[in-house]
Amino acid sequence: MLSVTEDIIDYATNILTIEAASLHNAAERLKTNTQSKEGYQQAIYVLFKSLDAGGKIIVTGVGKSGKIGEKIVATMLSTGTCATFLHPVEALHGDLGIVQPNDVVLALSFSGNTEELLLLLPSLKHRRVPIVGLGGNPKSKLAKECAAWVDGYVSCEAGGSIPAPTCSTTLTLAIGDALALTLAKLRDFSKDGFALNHPGGSLGRRLLLKAKDILIDSSKVASVNQDTSLDVIIMEITKHPRGSGVIVIEKTDEGHQHPQFEDDVLFPSPPLSETSSMIEDEDGVSQKINDPDTNKSVVVGVITHGDIHRVLKSSFSTQEGVFQIRAVDIMTSNPIVFNEDRLTSEAVSLMKEKNIPLLPIVRNENQWVGVVTLKDLQELF
After folding, report:
1. Are 343 and 365 in contact (CB under 8 A)?
2. Res 104: pLDDT
3. If 0-12 CB within 10 Å is exposed, 13-18 middle and 19+ buried, where does residue 15 land?
């Protein structure tokens, strides 16, 4: 019986050590034991052949093996392998209909003599579906019916007198990962493909989401020219609070040459003209609509809430002088802008590095389309 903290920690450490040893021993056998090596290679061949023919991998198992099987299926699906889980009992009562020509079955059983699995074998043989077995007994009834047998042997479970599956299920899960990732590697599955299968998660957003997918449209962002007075700037930023600032623009003729930058995606670029027409959105807030003159404007500055607060607190902003302050007096000139086709994760890194709360987003080299804010991006990542 565990009585003190040290005993609890020692016991937990021992369990982890025993399970880690089971993984290590299996890896050594796979590397040095001919039977283990040939079994794994044959399993990959059978699985890959089925997938190449348009089939899927059907994973099956009972009890704890079944739970591990469901996780293996999840890993296969996320890495681009068509797979599904079939419970042996349900299979015996109609669900065998999921098994189609060119499919392959991955059967999980440490003993290799699980009754429910063995009852499936005649039907699978009749359908001429190959079986890959994964377990700890290569001389079992299941192993004898398999086209390939993967070595999942462990010498003991980690619980000692408590015979719960621990080392055996941990090893089965790890081998399932190895099978899934080996198949993905053989098919040149990339991180882009992985991201396509994870659009809703943080990982998917990091690998897939572009600035244009998440930006605040330019029609909902305050924009002024360099000569706009401070009172108008404050009115604009109040009308369009989501943008977290004001974009300062200026007109330019078609022959205008943009400054050269070391990074060809960080260039100044245009937003909406102040002559843009106005509409009201669902909340009754005025919005600016893009017009053709937008392409003749460039971003020349950015004004944040902090810039406005600082100037209002300064001695420069007396009651008479505050209305003489212009955008050009308080803006950050030649701000960094970000191309809409770049990844949003790169925008987050850039904004943190430069300590900027908003980033103008541009299309090509001459059209401002919106902004992203650090606050919004941090909520995503």
Report:
1. no
2. 97
3. middle
